Amino acid sequence: MAAPESVTPLEHRAVEQAFWLSPASYWQPEHVVTSAWLTHAPFAFWLIDVLRPSSITELGTHLGFSCFVFAEAAQRLGLGTTIAACDSWEGDDHAGFYGDEVYDAVRAVVDQDYAGSVRMVRGYFEDLRPQFAEASVDLLHIDGRHGYDDVRADYTAWRSTVRGGGVILFHDIAEHQEGFGVWRLWDELRMEHPTFTFEHGHGLGVLGVGDVRDERLRALFAADEETAERIRADYVRLGEVVARQGRLEAMPAEVASLHDTVANLSAEIDRLAAAERALSDKLRAVHTSTSWRVTRPLRAVGRLRRRRGH
Hints:
This protein is of the alpha/beta class and 310 residues long. It has eleven helices and nine strands.
């Protein structure tokens, strides 16, 4: 398999020697938005290359990064993949609550670049489930509410939409803070199914459904601990490249925001300086007024009484 120009000779040799890498692993995503999923883009590119899914369903799209990565991979690989991006686009207690601006931002990217492949399905997962047929999905990505009961309900309801040989992804399996329970479900599932675990990027669990046909996926699930650590290390490194790209792309907006902050502070300083000058002018006007001169003896008596009172 020929490596693209962006892959160095050293990286190409790594691809030839490691089943868990392909030229797609080195792609840089076209659309980088704020996301806890940034560092999983290289593995997602590899997975789409290996799985060649005809249908993807995503439970929890938010700002759209994972959806864009799936769609971009399918587009670059020339696949006729359809992607159902399911979300209420209202937010929750983990992601925070927001208005239609998030939905509109994702819709703008979809309409511009992925109108033929991505279908945005707005609603609550339990209400949307009847729209999806049994065994109709090759890749299911679960990234909705992260409480144990919530994610278990999503898995239980949507598991049967995945056909044999498909894959289910779980995000946030490494988050153990209060309110997160994906790790608990993942610990249960990995005892019963072929799985692979990534710890970086808040954790990504990869679960094989039924008879896994692709030999590279079978090798991933069967990897011994030494091989698994090599796989994780490679995708931590590749994921950091994407995260660094995200930070670089965010810099202009951050600089612009800082400029706005400085401009606002400068305006406030000017306002306070003007207020100080106005107050000084008023004090000078008082001190030079006739009434101030006339009442000077009375003020002197008042000061004398205060000194005697001490």
